[in-house]
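Hello, quick one for you while I still have it in my head. A protein chain has come my way and I'm curious about its shape. I'm sending you its amino acid sequence along with the C-alpha cells. I'd be grateful if you could look everything over and explain what you see. Here's the protein in full, and shout if anything looks odd to you:
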Amino acid sequence: MDLFTFDFVPYKRNLAGHLGYPVGRQFFDPELAAETFQDHIEQFQLCEEVGFDGISLNEHHGSPYGLDNSPNVLLAYIARATQRIKLTMLGNLLPIHGHPLRVAEELAMLDVLTRGRLIAGFVRGIPREPLVYSLPLHETKTRFNEALEVILGAWTQDLFTHNGPHYHYDSVDMWPRPYQQPHPPVLRCPQPGVENRGQLSADTQGQATTRDLSRGGGGGWPPRVRCGHRVWAAPVCRRDAG
C-alpha cells in the first residue's frame, strides 16, 4: 500500500463566513500567505522524512480555501525541497488553460527535472473556476476531453497534429519529452455528470482503465487503486510502562 497526503494549501487565517465569491482583498495578508506556503513545504519535507510515498496537490482559483493556483509551480518548488517522494497533481484544471500543449510541456519538464517522480492528474474543476476565468460552464466538458487528447498526443506522438473545436496544432515536435515513457501515470477525474457520475479513471501505460463507482462490479479497477481517508496527526508523549 502506498501512502499519500492530499493538501489544499488553505490560507492560514480562518475566514469562515467569508468564502463566497468574491472574497475581497481586505482579507489578504501577504506575510500570512508566505507563511502558509512555507508551513506546507515543511510539512511535505516531514512527510518524506517519516516515510510517505507521495504528496498530492490540486488547483483552485479565487479562494482562500486553496492557495495553489498552479500546482505545476508549487510542485516544482517542492521537488527542489525533497528527494524521493512522488509528486501528484489532482490536478490541472484543463478547461481553463488556454493551451493544453503548454500544460504538456510543463509537466514533461517537471517529470524530467525529478527523474520520474510525477503523477499527472487532470480535472474539470468546480463552477467557481469557470466563473473566475469567464469561461462558459457548458464548455468545460468538451474542453477537458479535447485538452487531455492534446496532452497525451503531444507526449506520445513523434509529430503531433490536432484540429478540434477548441485547439489547433500542426506537426508539433515537443521537447523535452517526459522522463517516464510513454508518459507519467495519469489520473483523470472529470466533474460528475449524468454520463460519467462517480467514475474514476487511471492511465499508466497509455491505455485508460475506468470503473463506475456508482454501481457495484464491472469495469475492473485501475492497476493501482487509490483510496482516501482523513487522518489527524498530533505530538504524542510516550510513557514507558514500569
About this structure: The domain at 4-212 is CATH 3.20.20.30 (TIM Barrel). The mean pLDDT is 82.
